[in-house]
Every structure is written in C-alpha cells, then in structure tokens.
## 1
Amino acid sequence: MDKIAVIYWSGSGNTEKMAKAIVKGVNQAGKDVDVFQASDFSAKDINAYEKIAFGCPSMGCEVLEETEFEPFFQEIESALKEKQVALFGSYGWGDGEWMRNWQERVIQDGAKLFEEGVIINDKPDLAGEEKCTAFGERFANQ
Ligand SMILES: Cc1cc2nc3c(=O)[nH]c(=O)nc-3n(C[C@H](O)[C@H](O)[C@H](O)COP(=O)(O)O)c2cc1C
C-alpha cells in the first residue's frame, strides 16, 4: 500500500484547515496518512512515502514562504523524482501565480503531479473544505 504524507506550512491557519480537510479525504478512502508541519518533518524520512501532498500559501510576492517552507522544500526536492505529489495552499489577493510556478517546479523535479494544485482564497468555507476533502480522497485512491 502507498504510504501517504501531508506536509504543510501555515501562518494564519488557512492552509492548515485545507490540510486537515485533505487528511479527512484520505481517511475516507480508507488509507493511513502521516501529517506534519514542514518544520517538524525530517528530510531523511522523505523516502518512506510514495505519495506526498504539500501545502503552502502564497507569500512574499507570489512565492512559497521563505523562512521555513522554501528551505525545507529545497532540501527534499531532489527526492521527489517519480513520486506522486499533490499541491495545495491558500492565497489572498493574487491570481494563483505561486501555485502555477510551484507546479512547474515539481514537474521539473521529475515528480508525477496529481491534478492541478488546489487553491483556496483566504479561509476555506464549507464548500472549500469539501473540495479539499474530495481532492484528498481522489489522491489516495489514484
Ligand atoms: C507576508 C505575506 C505575503 C503574502 N503574499 C501574497 C501574495 O503574493 N499573493 C497572494 O495571493 N496572497 C499573499 N498573501 C496572503 C496569504 O496567502 C493568505 O493570507 C493566506 O490565506 C495565508 O494562508 P495561511 O493562513 O495558511 O498562512 C500574503 C500574506 C502575507 C502575510
């Protein structure tokens, strides 16, 4: 069975809410999932997982959060080749440019990108949470 991880960074809780909804979807699919904040994930453990969902909001100017998440992601990036990777995150006023760039980046890394990354404006409402849950369920099942 594929081992699944959800690893995220969230400053004000919006991406964390998305992460929890995605975990719910994975569980609904009957799969186990390990959940980490990026700062708690040990890079040496990356190869324990075949499927990884990464979450990070749009920060800076349409970039990943630069103090914790970007260094974390750089550290594990070379291990993403051939892995199934899903992306998600919350944004504020932009048009999702950070997610488009992030998708390109994981494809360049050789990962198998799952669908389009899920993006939610600010705090996910009920419909947003359901969207994330369905995404998690599909990711677990594929
Ligand atoms: C320092 C900072 C920079 C941000 N830069 C962007 C940005 O470039 N584009 C955008 O759409 N939203 C931007 N935002 C808004 C966040 O993406 C948005 O508030 C998001 O919901 C935060 O998610 P979180 O609660 O998981 O931290 C920025 C927020 C902060 C605090």
## 2
Amino acid sequence: MRKVNIPASKKYDVYIESGLLSRVGDIAKELVNPQKAVVISDSNVAPLYGERVLESLKSAGVEADIFVIEAGEDSKNPENLIEAANFLIEKDLTRSDLVVALGGGVITDLGGLCASLYQRGVALVQIPTSLLAMVDSSVGGKTAVNLKNGKNMFGTFYQPKAVICDPEVLSTLPDEEFSNGIAEIIKYAVLRGGKSLEILRSDSISECIAELIEECVKIKRDYVCADEFDRGDRQFLNLGHTVGHAIERESGFEVPHGSAVAAGMCIVARACAELDMCSVETAAEIELLCKKYNLPTDSNISAEELYSAATHDKKRQGAKLSLILIKDFGNCFIHLTDKEYLSEILEKGMVSNL
Ligand SMILES: NC(=O)c1ccc[n+]([C@@H]2O[C@H](COP(=O)([O-])OP(=O)(O)OC[C@H]3O[C@@H](n4cnc5c(N)ncnc54)[C@H](O)[C@@H]3O)[C@@H](O)[C@H]2O)c1
Ligand SMILES: [Zn+2]
C-alpha cells in the first residue's frame, strides 16, 4: 500500500490503494477505536459507496450511520453544516467517536468543519472520492463552508486522523470532474516537474493513477508543511488561481473550477513567455497538457472584466497582490506586485486578445 505521512501540527497518513474502501473499518478501529461513526456523504456518492463503508465499519465492530446531503457546491452551506451536527447529536456521537467524510471536496470541506466544531473536535477520517479531493482538498487541513457573501469564508484548520484514497472509485467519476482534478495536477507538475509531469506526458495515466495521486499528495504536503497556516509558501498553490477565480466569478460559476484554473495557468504561462521569463516551448507544453486532458486554454471573457473581477477583493487588502509566475517546469516564483501588473499579464496572456 502507498502511504504518505503528513507531518503537520498533528501527524497523519494518506493511504492510497485500490479496494481500500472495504478496509476503512479496520483502519478507523486501529487509529481511533471509536464505538460509533457517522459517515457524511452526498447524494451521488452515498448510493455508490455508502453501504461499502458502513459495512466495513460495522464488521470492525463500529456502530455506523450515514448522513447524506444533496450533491453540489450549493450544499456547502452553514445550514447543512448544522443539520449534520444535529445528526451527530441524534446518534449520540461522543468525543471519542468518529466522523467519516466520504465524497468530493464539498464533503471533505463540510465534513471536516463539522468534525472540528462538534464538541470542540471529534476524530475525522477523510475518504476523498473525486480526483480533486484526493490530490487537493483532503490534504492540508483546511475545512470550510460557503457564506452568502463569500466562498470558503467560514472554516477552520483541522487535521484528520487519516486520509483514505481508493482509486477504484474514480471509475464512476464523471469525465468533466476527472478533468477538474487533472487541472490541479497540471498545476503541481508546473510547480515541481518530476514524476507527476512524466506521468501527465505519458499515455498511461489510468495505469499510473495511484502513483500520480501519491506524487501530488507529496507535493501538496511539502507546501502545506512549510506553511500550515497559509502565510507564505502555500501561496504557490495559487498558481493559475488569481485569473482562474476571476474566470469562475465572471462566468457566474458556469465555468468549473478546474477549467478556470487551467485557462488561468495558460494565460499566465503565455504572458511569462511574452515577458521572457519562460520559454515559448514551456508555455506551449502547458497548453498542450491542458488540451490533452480536455481543459480550456483561454477565456472569452475580456481582459478588462477579468482584471476588475480579480482585483475586486484586493481593494480591502491594499494595492499589492501576489502572482505566481513561471520560469520553467519546477521553477516558479511568487511575485509581489501591484494590480497594474496583473492587467499586463492578462493583456499579454490572453489569446483572445491577440
Ligand atoms: N480544503 C481545501 O484545501 C480545498 C482545496 C481545493 C478545493 N476545495 C473545495 O473542494 C470543492 C470541489 O471539490 P470537488 O471538485 O471534488 O467537488 P464535489 O465534491 O462537488 O464533487 C464533484 C462532483 O462529483 C461527484 N462525485 C464525487 N466523487 C464521485 C465518484 N467517485 N463517483 C461519482 N461521482 C462522484 C460529486 O457528487 C459531485 O457531483 C470546492 O468546494 C472547493 O472549495 C477545498
Ligand atoms: Zn484549485
């Protein structure tokens, strides 16, 4: 079994292996030894995998129930958080018991927050079922729900006891959601190069998926452990995200996060090539990788609109913003700059502007 240790303020392992869903009970028993567990999941994932996880917990001698919320980002709200917490009370879950979050990033975020707040913190096991959740949201300890006026505005830092990735579950993930996860993986490959880049370049991604997940978890681990509370190096993980978030917002969230990040990364890469920071070949290969995995490389929203969407939040934070720029695969840097520089990046990087 692949195992990546995360030495955050509380240490834990990410386990990666096909078929692990049936071993959740044993792992939970060994690490937490709860009497009861509540699985939090969504309306797509629960019918597919809920029973398998409940059975595994029960055969390890753990009493287990499941709480299911409607699938989708709209469900990541305080109302569902409170509903989930009330369900834990209903089931008499105590501080020595366990919350299991089984689903994509919406569930790992909401379930994680629920576990961190319930009775001031109850043990949590994350079982990410989307590619994005496996390589991104379930590692690092950030939990949140959305508020009316801001995404991820209500959350905590809370590390799980374990993260259990079973790549088999990816067989039911819709193609578009798979591509969403790949966008973050391309981001890791640009930041670090190495094995993740090699696998993306190859034609054997499905055979190498466990290795790819392991590589990405290690990359995220390195950034997170260098900067658990997000004040410095963790910013590298925002590569493609300043422009990506602007695309998401301006499209009224019609463009999914992964697609927006892919386009954001390509815009930044082309601008970096224009400005002689990276080679034209590097920028072209980033585009090629996005195309290969069915991700967009540009946006039809104008540079002006993206600029105003991207700087909208910055008004309160003063005139400076951090952009992650590219020199080469495995060689990116944080550029603390003023807002006007972003305008230049957008002008230079958008194909639709050329
Ligand atoms: N905490 C963090 O550090 C962090 C990092 C990145 C993203 N996030 C959050 O993660 C969320 C996005 O995650 P996501 O893309 O996984 O979204 P998601 O949880 O909405 O999952 C995407 C869709 O795939 C379905 N799904 C998941 N696994 C499946 C499977 N195995 N088979 C069939 N369907 C499946 C879900 O039901 C959903 O419809 C956002 O809310 C984002 O803010 C958090
Ligand atoms: Zn992202």
